[in-house]
């Protein structure tokens, strides 16, 4: 762990410049999202950080090692939090779906830009395609299991999980950019459509409060 906290220093025109492992990962992640995996290059990243290539090799074995860590970061955020929210105990299926909805509100739980960067990468790499397929399956299965815990039959639970998950991925893909205030007006109808049950007014109100609290924390 000590190596992860070490900084690499290089004297330069701007003085004493440092680049940590987190600096490399953060820039690589931003580059993956904005420009695609082909632009995640050691030399290019080093130039942007204003450090030498030796800084990179202090933290990573190779470019592939960096890419593997980016993929692992994606798994540990976008997939992990959907599975975690779907696995939470909930008094009703409405509340179970609301827990999953939290991922669509808070980009710290699910970053759609990162997800689509991985999907673009998967078009170039069979290995990443397999990882993406596995992640989609894991997410859908976790949501399916949530429905099953609330008494839905296997096929019904599976289809409802697919509808809920694929609808949201499609929402991001179409780049609808609908204001949150507008989206909140549809929450009761979404809950009704996904579950076949009528949400209580307090369910909708609690979710609206969660959204307000989450968004105010980002300001």
TrEMBL record:
Residues 18-78 form the HTH tetR-type domain. PROSITE patterns: HTH_TETR_2. This is TetR/AcrR family transcriptional regulator. Pfam families: TetR_N. Residues 41-60 bind DNA. The keyword DNA-binding applies. InterPro entries: Homeodomain-like_sf, HTH_TetR. Keywords: DNA-binding.
């Amino acid at each position: 762990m000590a190596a992860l906290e070490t900084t690499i220093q290089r004297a330069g025109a701007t003085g004493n410049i440092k680049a940590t492992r987190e600096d490399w990962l953060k820039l690589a992640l931003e580059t993956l999202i904005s420009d695609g995996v082909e632009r995640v290059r050691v030399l290019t990243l080093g130039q942007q950080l204003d450090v030498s290539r030796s800084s990179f090799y202090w933290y990573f074995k190779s470019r592939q090692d960096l890419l593997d860590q980016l993929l692992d970061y994606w798994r540990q955020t976008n997939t992990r939090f959907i599975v975690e929210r779907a696995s939470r105990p909930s008094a009703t299926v409405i509340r179970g779906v609301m827990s999953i909805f939290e991922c669509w509100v808070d980009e710290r739980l699910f970053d759609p830009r990162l997800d689509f960067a991985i999907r673009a990468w998967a078009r170039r790499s069979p290995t990443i395609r397999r990882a993406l397929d596995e992640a989609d399956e894991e997410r859908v299965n976790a949501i399916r299991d949530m429905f099953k815990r609330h008494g839905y039959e296997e096929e019904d639970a599976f289809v409802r999980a697919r509808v809920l998950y694929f609808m949201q991925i499609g929402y991001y893909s179409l780049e609808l950019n609908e204001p949150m205030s507008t989206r909140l007006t549809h929450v009761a109808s979404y809950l009704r459509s996904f579950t076949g049950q009528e949400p209580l007014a307090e369910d909708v109100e609690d979710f609206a409060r969660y959204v307000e609290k989450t968004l105010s924390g980002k300001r």
